[in-house]
Amino acid sequence: QVHLVQSGAEVKKPGASVKVSCKASGYTFTTYGIHWVRQAPGQSLEWMGWINTGSGNTGSSQKFQGRVTISRDTSASTVYMELSSLRSEDTAVYYCARDAGAYDYWGQGTLVTVSS
Amino acid sequence: EIVLTQSPGTLSLSPGERATLSCRASQSLSSTSLAWYQQKPGQAPRLLIYGASSRATGIPDRFSGSGSGTDFTLTISRLEPEDFAVYYCQHYGTLRTFGQGTKVEIK
Question: Average pLDDT in the B16-30 region?
Fold first, then answer.
């Protein structure tokens, strides 16, 4: 069975960076891309970017370009999302999701709180 | 950038009733790239419909999707207690976009 397991909650100060991991299991890791989506409290879902787990190529929303870095470790079947220059508006639950066209499997979410 | 507008914002219905949710795109979409998700409080979204009308694995047949071009619809034929949740549409083209969601609440 497919699982995406994310790292635990983080509390960061404004200006810092956060790195969230997403470990995949139950399928061939390099067969599907992984996307990152975030959800601020009470808000809708917001697409951040993605990685082709085979080639390592990445893409991101223009909103996050320059601030988000998505990487992968194929030996560990893990994808990482690093967001820099954090501000209070980045407080949200961050999800990874498997790309089957639509997102057929999701991680459990990681709460990132940005507060001074 | 494609913008998806969902309506209504909130739908108040009773169990057993039919729910009709709308998703309108700012430009014409390929039907193969429209999905619907269900999200309950404290949970990750769950894929219901992909390709505008195909049910994901394990999704009951009371959920159906339809539409093309700029207008898409998610229909829940008879609401069960576990269907009260927030529903999002998504375009999954080169860039990915979500609608703002429709909350289906118990009347």
Answer: 95
Q: Report pLDDT digits (tens) over A48-102.
A: 999 999 999 999 999 998 999 999 999 999 999 999 999 999 999 999 999 999 9
Least CB-CB distance to B44: which of A46, A102, A106? A106
**B81-95 tens-digit pLDDT:** 999 999 999 999 888
Closest CA to A44 of B24, B63, B5: B5
In Å, how far are A70, B56, B62, B79 from B84, measured between CA atoms?
34, 19, 14, 8
DSSP code of B56? P
Residue B106, exposed/middle/buried by CB under 10 A (0-12, 13-18, 19+)? exposed
SS3 (DSSP) at B58: coil
Mutation site, A1, A22, A39, A44, interface B, largest B CB count within 10 A: A44
Distinct helix (H) and strand (E) counts, chain B: 0, 10
Identify the DSSP state of A101.
S
Contact A96, A106 (CB under 8 A): yes
Q: Which of A35, A100, A104 sits opposite B96 (nearest CB)?
A: A35
Distance to chain A for B47, nearest Cα, Å: 6
Which runs of consecutive H residues, i.e. helices, occur in chain A?
none
Q: Which residue has the tokens 């497919």?
A: A2
Cis peptide before B8 (omega within 30 of 0): yes
